[in-house]
Specification:
single chain; about 230 residues; mainly alpha; elongated
């Protein structure tokens, strides 16, 4: 049966794999309802009403997997429930970190279709790394994407390097714009009648032409697509 109340964020997985993100989301939601003191009282004098206790407990249980909800079915104190989950899963980063490092090491721009797809994978990895206490700098993100272009497109990677981007978001935006331009060019190319002569500007690479790429290179690349 579907839940009667919509969840504000993902439930805590049975193995606690998403505990770090879950605990942050839970704290934010409780704080927004002035219930954070139900799990993190400032002092012994911080009193709460039964209704507040029940509401905080409902929020926590509503965002547990069915397995965990059943395991802690008899726990009626939100702070005790919070502390038990924290004790059980607080070291989950020691389990996640090797996996996240493996994903980072094997992330390749050439294996993904678009810059958007790459960024989705990238930010998923970097978010987990931050939660595990590791933070990558912009130079690390820039080096990662530019060093994992397909070998046939390494000349384009060199052009982006020459632009000397300092912020990854700037490089990412430029690449997405270039990729969008090239998709338009490709659509125009495919829409020409059969036998029509290609215009000198046509380019079927995954990215926009850089100024120092010679016309013969463009024709060679275009012929590879035909």
């Amino acid at each position: 049966m579907s839940d009667l109340v919509k969840r504000e964020f993902d439930v805590l997985a049975p193995n606690g794999s998403n505990y770090l993100a879950w605990s942050i989301d839970a704290e934010i939601l409780l704080a927004s309802k002035d219930l954070l003191r139900m799990i993190k009282p400032k002092d012994d004098k911080d009193k709460s009403t039964p209704a507040e206790q029940a509401m905080a407990l409902h929020i926590l249980r509503h965002h547990l997997s069915t397995t965990l909800k059943n395991e802690y079915m008899t726990e009626r104190n939100p702070k005790v429930l919070w502390d038990l989950l924290h004790e059980r899963f607080e070291k989950i980063e020691t389990v996640l970190l090797p996996h996240v490092k493996h994903e980072w090491a094997n992330l390749r721009f050439q294996n993904l279709k678009t810059v958007k797809d790459y960024n989705t994978a990238l930010y998923g990895i970097t978010t987990c790394m931050k939660l595990c206490g590791l933070k990558l700098e912009d130079k690390n993100l820039i080096e990662k994407i530019l060093s994992t272009f397909h070998p046939n497109l390494r000349y384009i990677s060199r052009q982006y390097k020459k632009d000397n981007y300092k912020k990854y978001v700037g490089l990412s935006n430029a690449m997405q714009q270039d990729q969008g331009d090239d998709e338009t060019i490709m659509q125009n190319h495919l829409s020409r009648p059969t036998g029509a002569v290609a215009t000198p500007e046509a380019n079927a690479t995954s990215f926009k032409n850089k100024k120092d790429i010679k016309g013969k290179d463009l024709r060679k690349i275009l012929m590879e697509w035909l």
